Amino acid sequence: MKLRDYVIRRLLLLIPVLLGVSVLLFALTRLAGDPATLYITERMTDRQVEQIREKYGFNQPIWIQYEKWFVGALGGDLGVSKSFGNRPVTEAIIQKFPATFELTVASLSIAIFIGIPLGVSSAKRRDRPVDHATRIFALAGVSIPIFWLGILLQFLFYYELRWLPFGGRFDSTSANPVYFSVPTRTYFYTIDSLLALNGAAFFDAIVHLILPAIALSYASTAVITRLMRSSMLEVLGAEYIKTARAKGLSEKVVVRKHAVRNALIPTTTVIGLSFGGLLGGAILTETIFNWPGLGKWSADAILGADRAAILGFTLLAAVVYVVVNLIVDLMYAYLDPRIRLE
After folding, report:
1. What is the pTM of this model?
2. Which domain holds residue 9?
């Protein structure tokens, strides 16, 4: 199957997936309680309460409510978010998605550039001190709660050493916050500062990314390291690796050209799923570091029973997972030409 046809088919499969997710989520939000309670105050009369239900269609059957919501969602109207100042959910996603995306890319970059070399090095030096230290590092990464790690990093690097900021996306406490002079074009602070040729704002955005990115990346780094190590051990014992060595190829060529590429195939799956998980599940990290992204917004929405925001956030997370899985499948074909896209 041609790559174009495969991509089109997978994108078409996105429609029933999102339809099923939207039906399930909408039903759960309605089963969780009366959505009209968000708009009702203690001083309202029974007549006013009934007008609220009629205005928002809460007095209609649930399938009619879903139909109206779904038709609006197709046009980009996901409702109004109470946790975003009674503004549209779509506007909230547009403004908050860049913050979460920046944090996710930074975290996954750390995980990839540390986890893959660490896993390769550990496999090459099996049962040596480097291998033992790497396994302890990886075990700690999957064991340490992310909220504890975040608080520990804040205590060490902000409170004790005063090296890095406590949280947020830029310094808003100084007399002249550097980012305020940067025009908001994309809501990506790093990109906006580069477009404005403002080096101070770019540096400030990077500095604020360091602590939350490290905290968010540790668990992914540990998983990638462990999987890369086990994949490398399996590949290094394969017959074609022994043949490559028998031909007189150097160990460096054998590892880089033959072993690492094949070991990356299962690791790619974890990297893809990690990206989807980080993008949709950075709630604790964003809350701890006061990072104004989708995670913190969704946490506020949950606490405030903001059903429209919860629906919009979860639907976006579903889209991200499906698209990431498609990219992972395409990466499979690149890493191993024997894999056929069907």
Report:
1. 0.82
2. 3-88
